[in-house]
Amino acid sequence: MYARIARFEGRDPATIDEQVAELRRQIQGMREGGLPPDLPEEARVLTETVTRVLQLVDRRTGAAVGITFSETEDDMRRADEALNAMSPGETGGRRTGVEIYEVALDESFG
Question: Which of 12, 17, 28 lies closest to 90, judged by CA?
Fold first, then answer.
């Protein structure tokens, strides 16, 4: 498994809940197969390559970290290319860094 970690700064902290809700709506639509016909190609690639998404936010500063997971290195490279082509949006701040890692350990307690 592979993880792509993208860091963002400059988000408006007042819009975090709205942004997270919109991301949830988009992901739910993808799960249910409700992909609109005018969906950008980058978003279609994500439905094929990304298996999990985590969004970490700092409500005080508006900073965020987005972590996407893919099963294979090839899928992660395709997802990375698609995500790099997408914009964080007007209130999404600016992307300050992107790194890709192989997941060496993923364990849960409890």
Answer: 12
